[in-house]
Specification:
The protein has about 140 residues and is mainly alpha-helical. The chain has 4 helices and no strands.
Length: about 140
């Protein structure tokens, strides 16, 4: 008898619990964009590297020059193919930096369009040709 009373009361509580949900509030007001306040990354000033080209004909001369300048003769060698790969890597890094810079510019343009209209100069405009990898020649 008790079970017969508990089951209908429990069912009524479960059904009435679902009926008391609140109506969803829909916001139609656009949220104002906050300024990003991102500074463009500074241009890095790289150190000047002095390349010494050593081949079978000038190796004694180069080592004598280094000894005369009191520089320890520790040299790293690259073949012409390895040097070409090094240059390709540098071009790929440069292109990646250009892409990241364009992404930052796009975010700034999206979040701060009014401020950017009068401030654009030729250095912030990135051409689509900057995104294509450059083909290296032997002169590079």
């Amino acid at each position: 008898m008790q079970n017969a009373l508990i089951l209908p009361i429990l069912t009524i509580f479960l059904i009435s619990g679902c009926a008391s949900t609140k109506q969803l509030e829909i916001f139609t007001k656009e949220v104002e964009r906050m300024p990003l306040d991102l500074d463009m990354p500074p241009v890095v000033a790289l150190e000047q590297i002095n390349w010494k080209i050593i081949n079978e004909g000038n190796q004694e001369e180069v080592f004598a020059e280094l000894k005369k300048a009191n520089i320890d003769a520790v040299l790293f060698g690259l073949t012409d193919e390895d040097y070409e790969l090094l240059q390709k890597n540098n071009v790929q890094m440069r292109n990646q930096i250009i892409k990241y810079r364009a992404i930052i510019e796009a975010y700034k343009q999206y979040y701060e369009p009014e401020e950017q209209q009068g401030k654009e100069d030729s250095s912030s405009i990135i051409k689509s040709s900057d995104f294509t990898p450059k083909k290296l020649t032997k002169d590079d």
